[in-house]
Amino acid sequence: MPPRLHPEDPIARARNRAWTDYLPTFAIAVSGSMYANSDQEFDAKIGKIPEPFGKLEDALAKRGNAGPYFNGPKLSLVDAGYAPFLQRYTFMDRLRPVGIIERYPHLAAWRDALLADPAVHASTVQGFEAVWQENLILRGRWLGKFVSKEVTGAAALAK
What is the model's pLDDT at position 31? Predict the structure, then answer.
């Protein structure tokens, strides 16, 4: 029944399922760096991000100008699955710029489209970036040392 989150075409649908199956690999590469306990661990884990970014870049490049979403003009399950990790990568990159996504223009454009989408934006609470940053501090993660005191104070007030 409409609306479908997978394409009607069985080949495209199978391709989408393969990309949703790849999501844990992508998530581990991106999230692992965020929760590193030291700068050495952070650097080591950041070094693993280019491989999954490159695979997605290739897939996005092959679809041509079909965007802005993975399958073209409509949000799909692939988009919904990757959006949270691309969002958190963006949060991480703001705290500690790593400059990786800039090497992948199709992935960066996809990320930008996803983060601008009202449905993706509405999928988290207001001020989520500050809450995410506060969580880094509460969990004692290395990246938390880059969070400004103003942000954590604002997150506490929002509770």
Answer: 92
CA contacts within 13 A on the Cβ side of 46: 19
Contact at 8 Å (CB) between 131 and 151? no
Q: State the alpha helices, DSSP H only, in 1-159.
A: 10-34, 39-46, 50-62, 77-95, 105-116, 118-121, 128-138, 149-158
Write out the two tokens for 53: 């970014």
Instruction: Go through the domains of the chain in sequence order and give each one's CATH number.
Output: 10-123 (1.20.1050.10), 126-159 (no CATH)
Q: Provide, rounded to the nearest whole percent, the portion of the chain with pLDDT above 90.
A: 76
Distances (CA, A) of 76 to 7, 25, 67, 135, 149: 8, 19, 12, 29, 37
155 neighbors 130 (Cβ within 8 angstroms): yes
Q: Above 60 in pLDDT, residue 84?
A: yes
Six token digits for residue 106: 């199709």
Q: In one letter, which amino acid is 109?
A: A
- The Cα–Cα gap between 80 and 51 comes to 21
- Residue holding tokens 């679809």? 63
**CB atoms near residue 125 (< 10 Å):** 8
| Residue 158 pLDDT exceeds 60 | no
Write down the pTM of the prediction: 0.89
